[in-house]
Amino acid sequence: MKFPEVTTLLSVLAVVFLRGAHGWDAPPFCHSYDCPEFTVVNKYEDFEERAYQVSRWITVDSQGVSDHDVKAGFTKLWDYTQWDNKAGEHVNTHTWPALISTTEVEDGGEKHASLSFYVAPEDTVLPTPNDASIRNETMPACTIYVRTFSGFLSEYNFQENLKKLRDALTQAGKAFDSHRFIAAGYEGPWTLIGRHNEVWIHAT
């Protein structure tokens, strides 16, 4: 094979790698990792409307959303991906985002929290967890309203942006699930600048 042909082949392989197996151009905040595929339906001043395709997740329930609870939950999920499963297999961790999901009881009382990692499309069969609290979930195709913010994710800045998103949706006349909300993070704790966080609220 001649040198120009080698160069062309490498260029093609690079494009395929960056686009992913399904040809989807993931946004820059996915950092060339696998992300759930979506289409931006509309962009507004304070949020955007996304249509997500069906996606799969590994999820564990959490006692709450304190730093301790979140760390404990994500540690369980991480250990599962690092051979701590019935098959002793490694699960692809080159995926974003990680989710912290909260559902409120309608009277505003008790909250239910869970933590999730996105499952890459090529992982069609996942090993059975050793920890029975970990489960596989499928998120059906849906519309999600998203607000983006930067910095290290905290309870304070999440609640602040959650309120702004709810207010913007109400002002725009959008119908949404007022009892369920999600924090989505796209970086690990070692990333100090340029962090990308999102608030997700499902449309109804």
From TrEMBL:
* Position of the signal peptide: 1-23
UniProt keywords (A-Z) are:
Signal
| Pfam families listed in its UniProt record | SOUL (PF04832)
The name of this protein is: Heme-binding protein soul2
Family matches, as PANTHER family: HEME-BINDING PROTEIN 2, HEME-BINDING PROTEIN-RELATED
Species name for this entry?
Oncorhynchus tshawytscha
Q: Which gene is annotated as encoding this protein in its UniProt record? A: soul2
SUPFAM superfamilies noted in UniProt? Probable bacterial effector-binding domain (SSF55136)
GO cellular component, alphabetical, reads: cytoplasm
* GO molecular function (one): heme binding
Superkingdom to which the source organism belongs: Eukaryota
Can you tell me which family this protein belongs to?
Belongs to the HEBP family.
